[in-house]
Inverse folding.
């Protein structure tokens, strides 16, 4: 992956993260199960960490 591709992937993940976080808040407010959304956020956090480490090593 090039530096630009990594940065683009990070931007996409951040956007998705914010969207899912909003969905999770809506689910919580109506008393729905949020475990799936929480798992998605955890996986995204792991991927973001990995991408940031990769970006740092390519700089």
């Amino acid at each position: 992956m090039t530096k630009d591709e990594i940065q683009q992937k990070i931007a996409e993940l951040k956007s998705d993260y914010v969207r899912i976080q909003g969905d999770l808040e809506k689910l919580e407010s109506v008393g729905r199960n949020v475990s799936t959304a929480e798992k998605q956020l955890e996986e995204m956090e792991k991927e973001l960490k990995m991408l940031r480490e990769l970006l740092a090593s390519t700089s």
The chain has a mean pLDDT of 95. Residues 1 and 54 are 9 Å apart (CA to CA).
